[in-house]
Each structure stands twice: as structure tokens, then as C-alpha cells.
TrEMBL record:
Residues given in the record as Mg(2+) binding sites: 182, 259
Protein's name according to its UniProt entry: Phospho-N-acetylmuramoyl-pentapeptide-transferase
Topology term for the membrane: Multi-pass membrane protein
Organism of derivation: Nocardia alba
UniProt signal peptide: none
Gene responsible for this protein: mraY
Localization, UniProt: Cell membrane; Membrane
Pathway: Cell wall biogenesis; peptidoglycan biosynthesis
Length: 358
């Protein structure tokens, strides 16, 4: 438990102190956000706001994770594990893809960075490497960080995949979650605040899995997860880094996370869903991100079918802006929805445990 607090505290401090430094550096370099011309008119005033703030989130995450392990040496705590490093590696790889996308936008002074093909190559390449490695590194109990079985709160034993199908499945998860968070990142603080809530839920889930691990507490309802405590450190560090960044990203934002942050955080959700054996539960906990992505899919499908728009604009947080909701009202209400989704997910997680022990 101490390590979790250390991870969160270090990540929060690094993120909240580093972000204003990045604001000054990026502003001096002219790294200002380009705004889509077809968006809400009120957003045009945000043009030129420093972007790529996701760098602070990534550095904060790594600092919190590694710092907590350094402190843990003093009381013989377990060191970094394959699960934690693989999830952080996937997160960082997606962050690099996002950084390239942001940098191209800034250099060419346009709202489009990497081509769609280039972005997908980066996402899928990162996912393939993660999928291959996550089935390696067996521990003394024979557990690998990932499993070829689809999972809800634990592996569903009747649904197993071959190695190739598993790789394709992970690719779909990574592309879907990274794009979902990317689409959500359209209002000041919306993605950072929502991610904090989802990751906070996963701190509880991973710590519970550690406390009820089959390797140390065998019995009904125990969990076969390779490194749950280390994953709790990752979640705590990431949640705290998002909160530290949110201090500067809340409306009116002084910096945006950009694709550097949104793609990285989406990759983090995908990686956590695989390593914690909760791929289906993640859909509930991250329901706001799912809804944002679904609104874009529905908008395109309805328009191509009927030539009418389902929403005034997609992703659907813009629909409410164009319906005369104040931006801060949309943000706060969406945070509430994200909190409800996280709470419902935790309720489902605990109810499944009770069904196992009852």
C-alpha cells in the first residue's frame, strides 16, 4: 500500500511541476494547437494554446512508477515486473506515435498530422509487439502477463484464442481504445479528468486482485493475475499524473495533452485490460470513451445511409456545445458520467467476486 501512495505522490508532484515548464517552452517554440475550422466557433479562441502536454503525463507516470520502486528497495519491496513494464512500454510507444502526429501538425501549421495509414501503422506495430511479449515471461506459478482467453473479471475458460487471433484481438483493443480517448480529448480537461476516474477504479481493482491472489490466498474467488500490485502502481502513477496535468488543463486550458497524451492513455487502458484479465469490464469502466467513439461511428453510418446527421456534430460532446450548453457544463456532466461508469464497473467487479465466494 505504501508503494501505491509513493507512486501517486511522485507522479502528481512531477506532473504538476513539469507542466508549467512545458507551457513556457512550447509557447516560446510556437507549439500552438491548430483548431478544426468546422468545430464550435467558441473553440477558435483556443488557437495557439500550447499542446503536446501529454509529455508531462508520460514523464510523471514513469517517475511515479520508478520512484516508488526505488523507495521500495529500502523495505525489500518487489521490483519492477514484466506486466508493469509491458503496459508502460505500450503506453510510451503510443505516446511516441501521438508525439509524431502532434509535431507534424505544428510544423505544417494544420489540424492534420500523420496520415491515417501512418497512425494505424504505429498503433498496430506497437500492439503486435505488446501482444507477442505479453504471452512470454512466465512466473514461478506459470502465469504470463496476458492470456489467450477473453476475460470479463477473470478469464472466461470457454473462450480461448489461437496465438494469431490473440494478436489480432490485441490490435483491435489498442486501436479502439487509443482512438476512443483521442476522440474524447476535445474539451478542456475532459479526457484527463475522465481518465483519472477510470484509473482510480483500476487502482482498487488491481489492489483487490493482489490481496486475493491465488498464489498467496488460494480459495474461492481468488485471481490468477501475474503482477497485480505492480499494475496498481502503474494505475496510481497514471491517475495522479493525469490529475497533476488537469491542474493546468482544466478550463480555460493553458495547455492541451494532444495526441501525445490521448493515444498514450488509450494504449494504457488497452494494456491494463489485457494484463488484469478485464477486457470486457473495461468497456463498462471506460463507457464514456466508448460512447464518444460510438457517436462518431453512428454519425458516419447514419449520414451515409440517410444523408441526415444524428448529432449536430460528432464526437457528441460537441453536439451539446452546439445545443447551447456551456463548455464547462458539458465537461462536468461528462465527468459525472465517467464517475458513474467507474462506480458501476467496480460494482460489477465486486458482485462477481461475491458470486464466486458465495
Amino acid at each position: 500500500m505504501r508503494q501505491i501512495l509513493f507512486a501517486a505522490g511522485i507522479a502528481l508532484a512531477v506532473s504538476i511541476l513539469l507542466t508549467p515548464l512545458l507551457i513556457r517552452v512550447f509557447a516560446r517554440q510556437g507549439f500552438g494547437q491548430e483548431i478544426r475550422v468546422d468545430g464550435p466557433a467558441s473553440h477558435q479562441a483556443k488557437r495557439g494554446t500550447p499542446t503536446m502536454g501529454g509529455v508531462a503525463i508520460l514523464i510523471g507516470m514513469w517517475a511515479g512508477y520508478l520512484g516508488s520502486h526505488l523507495i521500495g528497495i529500502g523495505y525489500n519491496a518487489e521490483g519492477p515486473t514484466a506486466s508493469g513494464l509491458l503496459v508502460l512500454g505500450l503506453t510510451t510507444a503510443l505516446g511516441i506515435v501521438g508525439f509524431l502526429d502532434d509535431f507534424i501538425k505544428l510544423r505544417k501549421q494544420r489540424n492534420l498530422g500523420l496520415s491515417a495509414a501512418g497512425k494505424y501503422i504505429g498503433q498496430i506495430g506497437s500492439a503486435v509487439i505488446f501482444a507477442v511479449l505479453v504471452l512470454q515471461f512466465r512466473d514461478q506459478n506459470g502465469l504470463t502477463p496476458g492470456s489467450k482467453q477473453i476475460s470479463y473479471v477473470r478469464d472466461i475458460s470457454t473462450v480461448a484464442m489461437g496465438a494469431l487471433v490473440f494478436v489480432v484481438f490485441v490490435c483491435l483493443l489498442v486501436v479502439a481504445w487509443s482512438n476512443a480517448v483521442n476522440l474524447t480529448d476535445g474539451l478542456d480537461g475532459l479526457a484527463a479528468g475522465s481518465m483519472s476516474l477510470a484509473l482510480g477504479a483500476y487502482v482498487i481493482i488491481t489492489f483487490w486482485q493482489y490481496d486475493k491472489a491465488c498464489s498467496t490466498d488460494p480459495g474461492p474467488g481468488c485471481y490468477d493475475v501475474r503482477d497485480p500490485l505492480d499494475l496498481a502502481l502503474v494505475c496510481a502513477a497514471a491517475a495522479a499524473a493525469c490529475i497533476g496535468f488537469l491542474w493546468w488543463n482544466a478550463a480555460p486550458a493553458k495547455i492541451f495533452m494532444g495526441d501525445t497524451g490521448s493515444l498514450a492513455l488509450g494504449g494504457l487502458l488497452a494494456g491494463l485490460s489485457v494484463t488484469t484479465r478485464t477486457e470486457l469490464l473495461m468497456v463498462v469502466i471506460g463507457a464514456l470513451f466508448v460512447a464518444e467513439a460510438a457517436s462518431v461511428v453512428l454519425q458516419v453510418a447514419v449520414y451515409r445511409t440517410t444523408r441526415n446527421r444524428l448529432f449536430k456534430m460528432a464526437p457528441f460532446h460537441h453536439h451539446f456545445e452546439l445545443s447551447k450548453w456551456a463548455e464547462t457544463t458539458v465537461i462536468i456532466r461528462f465527468w459525472i458520467l465517467a464517475g458513474i461508469a467507474a462506480a458501476v464497473g467496480l460494482g460489477l467487479f465486486y458482485s462477481e467476486y461475491l458470486s464466486q465466494v458465495g
